[in-house]
Amino acid sequence: MPNEAIKWIKGETLAVPHSTGTAPPANLAPAGATDCHIHIFDRRFPRQVVLEHSAAEWGTVAEYRLFQRRVGLSRVVIVSPSSYGFDNRCLIDALAAFGDSARGIAVIKTDTPDVELRQLHAQGVRGIRLYAENGRVLPEALASYAKRITDLGWHIQFVAGREPGALVRFERALAELACRVVIDHMGYLPQPDALNDAGYTVLRRLLNGGNTWVKLSGVYLRSGQKRPPYDDCDALATALARAAPERCVWGTDWPHTGVKDAASKPDGAELFDRLSRWVPDAATRYKVLVTNPQALYWV
């Protein structure tokens, strides 16, 4: 990473919906820096499933563009949220608005027609999201999903969720998949003792296998702290980044639907600066922000 060849982008001082604070990050963002996990909620596309924690949340393309300006981000990966069920229309609409600077993670069924999968690919989708919680997908079903998407070069983004032992139960099925696997939100490992959780041992084994990636994101989801800075997640994020720096990506989880109190929303600039504490080496941080997302979503 020759430093002189990089264009650096300074964020702006802005008030942004669903983010506390207004100051830009202390650290500049390299051109191509990618937020690999956000959701778009648009009133033109009514929710299919009304979830208590997100029923009043809306986060539009226009609002997220303000967030990008504040932080200095260039690209984005939009993840279809659970409250839209199997309706990917909001996702596709957002991908069209962002153009080639965005990629998407869709939700499909095992019997989704091939022609629909090819259409989703042409519109920028590069993976599917599967949820372990509440039996929404069983370990034995993962191979069926992988078979549908492998030829497209897609990956499975796996949500372990809050149910204890999900990574342990799914380890063998995840390890045997032919397609790549991306573990959502650092495996949802409970804080503040994540490094001693059985799921962490599983996650490390999966990372050592070479086919698994992990998102350094969702710090508030399992933090033991009810308000930012959620720094009890730092040890886990640092350990994962050291274990597989070439297969880590970073995301904000904007608009943070899991935080009900607007005053407790994470500060987007602080989230970005926190990455420099997890990954202090600038060259490695460039991989997490630019090179790794390029390989996972744009190649």
Identify the CATH architecture: Alpha-Beta Barrel
Largest sheet: 8 strands, parallel
Described by its quaternary structure, the protein is: single chain
Helix content estimate: 25-40%
Compact description:
The protein is 34% helix and 14% strand. It is an alpha/beta fold and 299 residues long.
Fold and architecture overview:
The protein has 299 residues and is an alpha/beta fold. Helix content is 34%, strand content 14%. The chain contains 10 helices and 10 strands. The strands form 2 sheets. An 8-stranded parallel sheet has the order 3-4-5-6-7-8-9-10, sandwiched between helices. Strands 1-2 form a two-stranded antiparallel ribbon. The radius of gyration is 18 Å and the shape is globular. The model has no long low-confidence stretch (mean pLDDT 94).
